[in-house]
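ok posting inputs for the adenosine-5'-diphosphate job
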Amino acid sequence: MTKAILELSNVSKSFGRVHSLRGVNLTVRPGEVLGLLGDNGAGKSTLIKVLAGVHQPTSGDILWDGVKTNLDSPRVAMMRGISVVYQDLGIIPLLSIWRNFFLGREDEVSRKLPFHYQLRHSHMREVARGALQNLGIHIDDVDLTVAKLSGGERQSIAIARAVHFQSKVLILDEPTAALSLKETAKVLAYVREARNQGVAVVLITHNIAHAYEVCDRFTVLFHGSVAETADRESVTEQQLANLINTGTREQRRIAV
Ligand SMILES: Nc1ncnc2c1ncn2[C@@H]1O[C@H](COP(=O)(O)OP(=O)(O)O)[C@@H](O)[C@H]1O
Ligand SMILES: [Mg+2]
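and the output
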């Protein structure tokens, strides 16, 4: 089994009296899609914010490549190679595709090509086009503004950006929530492609069918605790639904 790149060990997070996460254990491995499932309020967003350096655990450890670490801020997490695609995508609709692709990274390009304004722009266009192609996304005109793209295409740009800039862990928050069937199939294909290129992907969703289609493993949260972590082969879609709804593989909790 591949070694974990990112691991949570017995992580709890409280906001005053609200215990959002309770003793969570989680492993994320390169070349795998981990589905993070759970009902509303189960703790999914809190968990990804811990992984993204937005929240600090109240107790427990974070391990990066087997070594205990702190993710003190989103910047620290990003420098480690953790990318989060939130539902708003961090994309600016009125900018072109290539400008969005390089958003926040313009300085790196300027350092490489300091005096060549025109060259720099054609370089960025080429790189953006190539990175999209690399993932199987066919958009010829990278000068289009993102506002003209579909929801699935926007997701795909965010995924291609994370892969191109060598993210080790890519966290996707409900990437298929607002998409048509056809668009969903495409985005799931890009998720698989990112995994095949060695990225560790964490997919947050409450659509069990989408999760089951693409995830290698599942961790189900129930009221802030891990109900179960299971390989895809060892759990059915119905059992996942039960885990989400009752915290067990059974349809209903047995009354005690
Ligand atoms: N900043 C916060 N302050 C207080 N309570 C919070 C905060 N963030 C989340 N919670 C609470 O933590 C629990 C888990 O929420 P959340 O992580 O958003 O779940 P999910 O994303 O699975 O719907 C909820 O009860 C929520 O109200
Ligand atoms: Mg949430």
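notes: The longest strand covers residues 18-28. The chain has a mean pLDDT of 90.
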